[in-house]
Amino acid sequence: MNLATNRVPTTPTVPAAPTMPTALTVSAAPTTSRLRSIGDGTVASVASTPYRLFEVAVRRTRRLSPSFLRVTVTGPDLDRFADNGFDQRFKLVLPLPGVGFDHLGGGADWYQRWRQLPDHLRNPVRTYTVRAVRPERREVDVDVVLHGDNGPVSQWASRAVPDDVVAFVGPDAWYPGDHGGVGFRPHPGAEFLLAGDETAVPATTSILECLPADARGEVLLEVPHAADVLPVEHPPGVRVTWLPRNGGAHGERLIPAVRETAVRLVAATPRRPRQRLRDIDVDTDLLWEVPATATDGLYAWLAGEAGVIKTLRRYLVTDLGVDRRSVAFMGYWRLGRGHPL
Ligand SMILES: Cc1cc2nc3c(=O)[nH]c(=O)nc-3n(C[C@H](O)[C@H](O)[C@H](O)COP(=O)(O)OP(=O)(O)OC[C@H]3O[C@@H](n4cnc5c(N)ncnc54)[C@H](O)[C@@H]3O)c2cc1C
What we know:
Bound molecules: flavin-adenine dinucleotide
Helix content: 10-25%
CATH topology of the largest domain: Rossmann fold
Number of strands: 15
CATH class of the largest domain: Alpha Beta
Shape: globular
Largest sheet: 7 strands, antiparallel
Structural class: alpha/beta
Strand order of the largest sheet: 6-5-9-3-4-8-7
Number of domains: 2
């Protein structure tokens, strides 16, 4: 598969080098810009950091299904939010009552300073996927999984109304290099397996929309209910299978489906001998590895609840011999634990 897409990104077509999801090498204040001479001598403004903080307001919300809420935000400088497509991630920052975002200040050390703040001054920050960007309308969509009032973002989203203020730390279109934050990086021509739970649905559907017409692969998505199956556009060579849990445990349908599908896919691709994997404690460590350059054979992209993703990765790499350099695995959240960011 060639990553030339049917979507025109504002930044590099090939996804940028992976960065850890918690590494916020971003600037909270409007990014320092400088003037630079380009091409024919035109002077343009460029940003010096790949990410910047966009203060935005809810324009509208739309319930897509029992579990998914689309939140559309707008902001004066959202025409500067880069549209990289694929699984581009960003940070959603909630305001603190009576404080907002002003105390976060600016500078590239935003994250370090946020960490040093006392608890009561630390805005809740969580990672989400950019679902759509419409720079001409200064709009960005995010599809939020509603999982009750036990998490600040889920709680916020379920009550969000127009003009509610929030902040996005997202890719700055004025930055001339790679932004990072895209995990889907198959090698050219790869047949792929995308597997995830409801939190990976926004990323997966966005990836599918970016694929070239000759893409080939299998997509397995576990969602809470049958009514959470969303319409999704995809190339003819890609099969999308929805796996409603209908009250079952996380992974109950995804794990057997991945096993069954992967056995079939790897039968036709090169395998490697049994590979040893460092054991990762999903309750204390971040489950995250995104190969920068995938190798031959099956390419797998796995995202969702960390315990489930760990099981899937072990199965693919250790049991089936899929090259670990072709397996991107991302613990998007951990059952029973607040996300660190
Ligand atoms: C790169 C990346 C991209 C992501 N993209 C999206 C996205 O587009 N849409 C999306 O909805 N999520 C996405 N997530 C997952 C999201 O960041 C987490 O679900 C996050 O924990 C939600 O924050 P919260 O404030 O609602 O709950 P938290 O405060 O983080 O957690 C509170 C409690 O809720 C539980 N919990 C968290 N998420 C869920 C869930 N989905 N279902 C059931 N229980 C849960 C936790 O185990 C904990 O017990 C993404 C994560 C990453 C790392």
